Amino acid sequence: MQSSIDTGNELTAAHLGWRRRSVARDWPAYALLAAAALLISPLWLADSPAMPDYPAHLASFYLLAGGAKDPLLAQFYTVHWVLVPNLAAEILVPLMAHILSLAIATKTFLSLTIAMWVLGAGAVQKALYGRIGPASLAAGFFAYNANFMWGFLNYCFATSLGFVVFAAWIASPRSSWFLAPWRLVGFCVAITIVYFCHVFAAATLLVMMSCYEIAALLEQRKFPWPDAFRRVATIVALYLPSAFAFLVLKPKSAGGGLVEFNLLDTFLDRISAAVQYTFDRPAYFLLLALGGFLAIGLWRGRITLHPRMRLLLAVLLVATLLVPEWAMGGWGVDLRLPAVLGTLAFAAADMRYTTRTTAFIACAFLGLLVYQAATLAGNWRYYDRQFAEFRAAIGGLEPGSRLVTVLDGDSMGLAADQPYWHMAEYAIVDRDSFTPLLFATKGQHVIQIKPAFRSIAATSAQQGSPPDISELDDLSTSDTADDPDIANIFPYLIRFQCHFDDAVVIHLGGRRSAIPDMLALRHAGSFFSLYRIQRTDDCSKS
Fold first, then answer.
1. Using CA atoms, how far apart are residues 418 and 205, in angstroms rounded to an integer?
2. H or E stretch at 160
């Protein structure tokens, strides 16, 4: 009997010892899970995250989930499914909305994006080194970047998914035919999914995979041409469906559109896009600290970058500095790669400090992540109160009204106005309203404007911002002589008083500008006012 007890005690002690060794070995993985949870938490502490594009996306999801069948909304909007490479949230959120509320489904999508970004970086490091190290924690800082803060939902989701696919590519065992047939099919499907989530993310994944394979070839003393051919042929085969979709199914607007580089004007924007604590608040000190930590570690030999990642990081650095600001009809292309570069730089880093120093560094990273999450949550809760006030106020609007947003620039001063650009789109969800700034660009989105209302809706990203209150008089009289923006950016608002029912004017806390006579106050809020737009005599001639 005593022998059995002793044997049981020995087994228990052995099991506890194994668990301690396992925790000691795998603690960076547990820390990475904690980091992902920390960074997801702000999404669930505010009803409406203060991303400029969020209300417009929410309205689109509402229409896709069945709202477009409502008689009032059906007169304005229609759903036209087309295979554009920008469909991640448009497919997933309405599907989830069948079992979850629309807001919860959207937050779940955003949470998946953050989780895949943070854990995807850890997966890349695991694939490179066979373990997850503390450096992957630093990659988590880049999950909240300018793209996410703006609300570029499809790009961020597709990029985070791309990290997961890239990690699987690195870890996938190679056979004599480079990849087994079933793996080829799996990667081909995964890459095609990334493409239809967002085209730029698929292109970025192509760069990742290509640079990794080139680096693997360059490691060999004698360049193996047959192996090089097999690797190139494999990647080409994997991207054939995406290439076919881009060339044959390409939306009409994708082949043209404005292309502008503006390298000097956008240099600071590119740097600040990598990490942000809140919208339009770059984390310069953190970026400097992370860059200095990485540079000093590399110089002193305490940090090394995986040999197969160095070419990729160099290519991403050059591309970060040189990609255009505008391309394929979209703005903000220059903001997309800085966070990818930062994430992969730390995913590729192997730290060689003492155990105590490594633990201290990891704790410092986690502490900064706590600060980042807390700062973001506080900021979003501030805006959330404003959005809640606005949504309560529009309860007095007539269902089916047409609502336009106007900025009082002098009153707002230096405060960021972008978080309010699409605030009126909440009225689509709450009051079945029409707004001119919903994402409905033909050939780029699946929500389309009915023909009767296309002339009073924005048709491109260049037209995606509201007018200033000082421009309303010229807009009402079609006066384009003194303000080129009237004809170039706001042509759909010319004689707006004849086509729209209500206006929301964003003032914030400054001294408010004079209001044109055609606007009659119906509600004064703490940071905005709602006005009834009165028809002028010449509207009967429209």
1. 30
2. helix 153-171
